[in-house]
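cache lookup: miss for this entity combination. No prior model stored, computing from scratch. Input as submitted by user K.M.:
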Amino acid sequence: MKVLVAIKRVIDPYVKIRVKSDGSGVEQHNVKMAINPFCEIAIEEAVRMKEAGSASEVVVVSIGDKNCQEQLRTALALGADRAIHIEGATQAEPLNIARILYALVKSESPDLVIMGKQSIDSDNNQVAQMLSAMSGFPQGTFASKIDVDNGFIKVTREIDGGLETVKLRLPAVVSTDLRLNEPRYASLPNIMKAKQKPMEVISLDNLGVTLSQNQEILAVSSPPTRQEGTKVGSVSELVDKLKNEAKVIS
Amino acid sequence: MSVLIIAEHDNHTLSPETSKVITASQSLESDCHVLVAGYQCRDVAEQAAGIEGVSKVLLADHPVYTHWLAENMSALIAEVSADYSHLLMAATTTGKNVLPRVAGLLDVGLLADVVSIESADTVIRPIYAGNALAKVKSLDSKKLITVRASAFDSSATSGESAPIVEIEKVIESPNSEYVSSEITQSSRPELPAARVVVSGGRGLGDKAHFAMIERLADKLGAAVGASRAAVDAGFVSNDLQVGQTGKIVAPELYIAVGISGAIQHLAGMKDAKVIVAINKDPDAPIFDIADYGLVGDLFEILPELIEKL
């Protein structure tokens, strides 16, 4: 079984972001970048499937400028077999990303596509679902457990009230939730070996995808700041403040 | 053109989030229709028909829609969508599962987790875990929107009943099948709808100590929440997680106990009206956004607080 893992280069989740003063976006210059945490989980799951013998090849793909090759190399060091960098379309809309991945799905014909449930920058949570729709594949979103079995995949999904399990016919698309696994770290020897692994660069033209603009970001602003709070000295004072000042309890 | 709201329900009761989506749709000043799809869910259609502002309810009642599989549900919604300029759904796990798939089928974009509808084509949505707000204009002819329910009020019932129209369309889902679900039972209020939320974090130490959070919540009639650390440590089930990847709440009162206040947690609760933080570390980032902070040992503070309420 061939597994395709889609990953995204994003601002490191521990960085406190800064909104640009002209409202055009978020400061990306000289900011630490990383693999989106949900994508790390997707890589880990694919590699575990390979280690367990259920996957024969793990192909990792990322879309963006040349810099995202850094994240692809990391994915190779974590155990992916080869990487595909699709050049261009940095910060593209989810619909365009899904179109690009759909073109790749047609040429690579994977049995399973795994990706994170959302990227922590645009917080869209859309690409996996859109890709499934375009390719006609069933989808297992927000997966916290997966089992591949004889042409099918069982996905336990995190839903609002608890958990739900669905059984999907392969090929399918799965998006990962936080509790699917604990991603490993790349070891130094593996980082060295990853340099030898194949990395193919494909342009959008070669994929035959035309992008569209469906959304326009008019402005990016900082959220309103909260009024500064106070520290109270005791439980009695806290209860008193909540009752008489904030009036949120009676 | 009209607005279609896709109702979320358990085949018996319309979800409180759907009621909030109806409120959000009122700013579009169009006819508001509600699609209720499910099995033996006529009760839900009747509840939706009684909500102020709803002028028609579409009911697709068939066993194939029992478990809300994304594959056939999205196909049904795409099929029904032809006459509508806007499709709205709550940004719950169900809305996030289904509506982007509809967008993929219709080849249009989607505006996710919207907190404000500015005009017929422009919305505001948080990005970067709520650390920035993006004003986004949709250029699509059909606008698909998931709504952050906590940013809107519930809608009122009208006392009248809008007509219910049955849809005969039956779409099978040959490639996916529902197996089972494990729904967490709780007598406490639901997290997204609660007026008061009490959340515990890693600071509680173990599952047994987390019971103190539950006792405090019961005293206040509050819902119980948790940080990711508390969920990962097995103190509570994951559907109680508050944050960027869990539930997003905006109650009147949010009490965070033993939670440091990582960016990802703040993303889920920083719009609460009053935030109380109880933590032994005076430098914990949670104090930056708390209206009332109490520095100290939660094992001493919690029993005293429970007693004094």
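stored under new cache key. Chain B has a mean pLDDT of 95.
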